[in-house]
Design a protein that fits this description.
This protein is mainly beta. It has helices at about 5-10, 215-220, and strands spanning about 10-15, 25-35, 45-55, 60-65, 70, 75-80, 85-90, 95-105, 105-110, 125-130, 135-140, 145, 160, 165, 170-175, 185-190, 200-205, 210. Strand 17 (about 200-205) and strand 18 form a beta hairpin.
Length: about 220
Amino acid sequence: MTDIGKLVLFTGYYSMDGVPGAFLSIDTVERRSMVPGGATPSLMTETISISINVSMDGKSCTTYSFSEGATFDGVTLSIPGRLTLDFVRRYSGGRLASFSGRIGSVNVAGVTYYNQVPLRAFVGDYYDVQTARKVLSITPDLVLLFDFEMFMNSSGALREVHSYDYTPAMFVLKFSDARSMPPNAFTLMLGTAAKNGLACSIQGGGTPRLAVSILPFDRKLNS
């Protein structure tokens, strides 16, 4: 596993001791793109970008890109001349991971209650609560199929999303409709909805819509 792949596991927001509001966050964005394979199935490429955000006073923040000389061996995150932090994943009282070390010349320590959630946690079919139509499918291979016409009150077919970004700390998908001019952007906020299973708030073409993996009983009767 690469350094950046190891650090993905520690994605999250860490509150720091000392000053109220002080924090360190590890922000991950996963970009997946489908590369047409001609006579063969499409291939998926994946790139991961990580930024490390540091606020020592809770009022201002400095951002470092992992690609600018950072290293992480699974324990020690190092940005030469900026910080050296040791991370450990250990559950205690709701805390999932912690770190200690130095930022600049200051000794620091922090903990997080957050956990990154992989897109695989949301694999399934999603049905629009208003129309009872299937509007989104996330396959086990992490291919997205989406009804780009769902806000047009027309019965659109699911189409493959050619490229999308996923933020595992926020459970958010972002992509655009390459066929529209200018491209219409969509933001999908993933989560759960009790007895309705998986849920997705869809924004990008009007009033946000809710899709779930199990429709409410009255919607099933009308579908």
